[in-house]
Amino acid sequence: MTTMTDPPKASFQLSMLIYDTRYRSYTFQFIALALLIALMAFLGINLIKNLAEQGQDISYSFLGEPAGYDINQRPIEYDSQSSHMRASVVGMINTLIVAFLGCITATIFGVTAGILRLSPNWLVRKLMAIYVEAFRNVPVLIWILIIFTIMTAVLPAPNAFRGDNATSSMFLNSVAFTNRGVYIPTPIWGPGSMVVVLTFLASVFGVFYYRHYATKLLYDTGKLLPTGWPSLAILVVPTLLMFFILGRPIALDYPALKGFNFQGGLHIRGSLIALWFALAIYTGAFIAENVRAGIQAVSKGQTEAAASLGLRPKRIMNLVILPQALRVIIPPLISQYLNLTKNSSLAIAVGYMDLTGTLGGITLNQTGRAIEAILLLMLFYLTISLAISAVMNVYNNSMKLKER
């Protein structure tokens, strides 16, 4: 509401886009965006024009053609007569498998080593320091080759399990470690097995809910609930009850030596294991330093105050130190997850067929569609990197201090 004493409002003029501080920043941003769009359009038009002059065009029709090559690690059905699209999907799944397993294992290694680097035990502290310095200062490709070479040179061939002691030579009479990889039992899903799986997933969420409730109750009232055995009971008991009530619908298919190789079970190739552990151990060394820095960023007075209340060192670490240290740890942790995912493209060094080996390797060489293949590779890694960043940023925001 205006009054008679208020000065008249100035009408908008184009000069205000430059001289008025309220609009100047938006003007420069718009100009920069327009120049960027123009540059990208110029490069795209120039690329299409040059390709047309050479009788080429950008086309993705090659994805429907038969691939004509085999893939050793196949998480889904695939043969040499499948399309290049199918081969790319297999490579994409293989990449996601390595990235997922690597991120989880690297987090376990990194958090453990980071905490132990601050241990009062001199020997433990120095061993963790040696691990960190040794692995993060040697290129990850070398570690991939070292682990793969050890697996192929040290582990026995499948025919070593032949004879009367074949089963006893296997770990727990069901797992075979060979120079061709590891053979483990695989589940056989019967009627009702999905109910057991859903019960297990519900139990996992139940564990998280119970631990969250116990922590909130401790902060609100000071009442300390046990979290170890109740979490284990919530995770195991409902699933076991459902498993036996439904008549044990899930069975196991054990690997057995037939001919010159094992048949049955699940075959995890040595290339996958070497790539997985090399990436995890290498990235875990960097995560360990992030964890150590995050813990040291918490004031020592927090530890002393918690100890004065009678809390044990393990409780102090879980309830006082780590929750505050996560605010420092998570941002660089996101970068380490992204680095691990992108470093998985080194899989071709040990013959593991990820997306770089299928779409960016054999498919590219067979079809000659380098531009199309590289663009798809860039799109995939961009998408998965943005997805990881988005998920971790949500978690990071949930750990921030809430200002009142």
Described by strand count, sense and barrel closure, the largest sheet is: 3 strands, antiparallel
| Main sheet strand line-up | 1-2-7
Looking at the structure, the CATH topology of the domain at 84-118 and 270-399 is: MetI-like fold
Distance N to C terminus: 32 Å
Identify the CATH homologous superfamily of the domain at 84-118 and 270-399. Answer: MetI-like
Named CATH architecture of the domain at 84-118 and 270-399: Orthogonal Bundle
In the CATH hierarchy, what is the class of the domain at 84-118 and 270-399? Mainly Alpha
Count the E strands: 7
The helical percent reads 55-70%
Dominant shape: globular
Strand content: 5-15%
> What structural class results from the helix and strand content?
mainly alpha
How are helices and strands ordered from N to C?
A: HHHHHEEEHHEEEEHHHHH
Uncertain segments are none
Evaluate the radius of gyration.
Answer: 28 Å
Calculate the mean pLDDT score and round it: 84
User: How many helix segments?
Assistant: 12
Task: Briefly characterize the structure.
The protein has 404 residues and is mainly alpha-helical.
Structural notes for this entry:
- This protein has a domain at 84-118 and 270-399: MetI-like (MetI-like fold), CATH 1.10.3720.10.
- The chain has twelve helices and seven strands.
- Helix content is 64%, strand content 6%.
- Strand 5 and strand 6 form a beta hairpin.
- By secondary structure, it is mainly alpha-helical.
- Helix 3 (84-116) packs antiparallel against helix 11, helix 8 (270-297) crosses helix 10 and helix 9 (300-308) runs antiparallel to helix 10.
- The strands form three sheets. The protein has a three-stranded antiparallel beta sheet with strand order 1-2-7.
- The protein has helices spanning 16-19, 21-53, 84-116, 122-136, 140-154, 193-221, 228-245, 270-297, 300-308, 313-343, 355-367, 370-399, and strands at 176-178, 181-184, 186-189, 250-253, 256-258, 261-263, 266-269.
